[in-house]
Amino acid sequence: HKLPGGVYKWKAPSNIALVKYWGKRPPQIPANPSISLTLDHCATRTELHYEPLESASEDCQFEIFLDGVANDSFRPKIATFLERIAPYLPFTRHYKYRIETSNSFPHSSGIASSASGMAALSLCFLSLERELFPEMDESYFLRKASFLSRLGSGSASRSTEGPLMQWGYHKEVAGSSDLYAIKYPFPIHEIFRNFHDTILLVDKGSKQVSSTVGHQLMHDHPFAENRFLQAERNLEKLQPVLADGDLERFIAIVESEALALHAMMMTSSPYFMLMKPNTLEILNKIWAYRQETRRPVCFTLDAGANVHLLYPDHIAGEVQQWIKSELADFCENGQYIHDRVGAGATSI
Ligand code: PMV
């Protein structure tokens, strides 16, 4: 049957990887498994308005509005995404769509909206499928939402649920898959459920090298095989650390993962560097602060110059004071965003 038309609304968060995904093969299959903390504040809200067509269209028909204004800059990315998901959602060509989207974080803040954006859009499409097939159960719904999100952007597969997600097959993790992310299936200490992530906006400009190109450069990379093994091992090493709340070992693994990601960029052919002088200033400040105060703060990095500062809730007050007085100077226009671990996407 055909639905008369309507709207679905979802809010999906961004996420920050602890064990990084860098390297893939078609169709969006990761070279190694990754784990991320789901964020709370940094999120995309998306409305999918749909209307039935008289007859199925060749290409998916859609228009996009960002913050209420027609916006075609995402058009190619969304068109590719809709092509990719069509085999799994055959009804999509029988409707036309208006996609209205907005992000909680500032545009061109250097925070990628692809993870939260693709997850929010996938959840809207899946709600439409569930309306057509109401017998769909919740676990199928969430798994398929992550599966579709992955086809939009690999890391988006980890933005559907929280607090901790794993994407990618690992022999020691039952239920893990390259096709979708799962909720981290091992014990998680309370301390990580309340973790903070302050995103220090070092450089808000667009990256010189996209993550798509970066993933590709892992194909002929001299260190690729070892990097993939390292990620697998770090994922295993994190298991007791996440269960016990062992912050010292957590810090060693997480910072090493961030630097390994950037080391892959610096040693690919062609090589490139996404860190900026202020990124390094901040990393040195963090190391000095940790040494002086013994406070368990650490950093991680995405594919960009911004620094994610991770810390537990019981020291949030003093750390945020320190960010304001010491780290804000290294951020573009003094800007940073306080975020924390969240529970995943919600229907709105
Ligand atoms: O999802 P993509 O293709 O934008 O890749 C993102 C990769 C990193 O953010 C650098 C690491 C990760 O696991 O999120």
From TrEMBL:
Signal peptide boundaries: none
Q: Which organism is it from?
A: Zeaxanthinibacter enoshimensis
Listed A to Z, the keywords are: ATP-binding, Lipid biosynthesis, Lipid metabolism, Lyase, Nucleotide-binding
One function term, GO molecular function aspect: carboxy-lyase activity
**Keyword Hydrolase included in the entry's annotation:** no
Query: GO:BP terms for this protein?
Result: isoprenoid biosynthetic process
Looking up InterPro entries in the UniProt record yields:
GHMP_kinase_C_sf, Mev_decarb, MVD-like_N, Mvd1_C, Ribosomal_Su5_D2-typ_SF, Ribsml_uS5_D2-typ_fold_subgr
Q: Does the keyword ATP-binding apply?
A: yes
Which PANTHER family does the record match to this protein?
DIPHOSPHOMEVALONATE DECARBOXYLASE
Q: Give start and end of each Diphosphomevalonate decarboxylase-like N-terminal domain.
A: 12-172
What is this protein identified as?
Diphosphomevalonate decarboxylase
**Pfam families in the cross-refs:** MDD_C, MVD-like_N
Q: Which residues form the Mvd1 C-terminal domain?
A: 199-327
